[in-house]
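INFO batch 0412 | record 1 of 1 | parsing
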Amino acid sequence: MDTGKVIVNVVNDIATLTFAHPKSNSLPAKLLKEITESINKLASDKNAKVIIIRSEGEKSFCGGASFDELIAIKDFKSGKEFFMGFARLINAMRKCPKFIIARVQGKAVGGGVGIAAAADYTLASSEASVRLSELLLGIGPFVVGPAIERKIGKTAFITMTIDTEWHDAFWAKQNGLYTKVFATNRELDEAVAELAKKISSCNLDSVAQLKKIFWKGTEDWDELLEERAEINGRLVMSEFTKNYIKQFKGK
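INFO prediction complete | emitting tokens
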């Protein structure tokens, strides 16, 4: 099974973390772990003053959880551990003392929406629609939910969770998930580069203090997201979820 890859480059104080997976940049456990470990390393890298997180390709930003791994889960322990991958990633982004810019060039589902929400500043293309489809699977956006709700508010989060439909990039901007939306990927890349360069010249101590302020009220997320991972760890073993994934993969 192709578990994807993570590439990290640091140039002129700007770190770019690129993740990739052949199935719409979905996130199997190994890839989640590599992204999380990379962010934790960059957090203490003196040569990296700002972090850009992006995915490979021109279409999907992130397809969310790996269906291949979801359907293979056989017990609560492995189910919880899979969803803890998302919990650890969000908490790593939250605790990182440096600003994280998300570059969202295409569609984002589930965990991909969580990454866009956990970033400190998110720029997107007009093709970057978002969707929370977890309810259809018989689970829910429990782990990524706190990060998404923090960004877009409870009403918009409830809307996305219940209707499970695609919402376009302009809806995402209107509701605070994206800061700016660009017509082309070229314009998006230029804006990301300009912002990263600006941030890289800032005082890192100031940035670290601002991150604490921006994330105030989330100090309990280590425990909260673990509790949420346990909820999905139980739900993912249901016949409902197994049957849905089998039908989806059979289309």
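INFO post-check: The chain has one domain: 5-186.
INFO record closed
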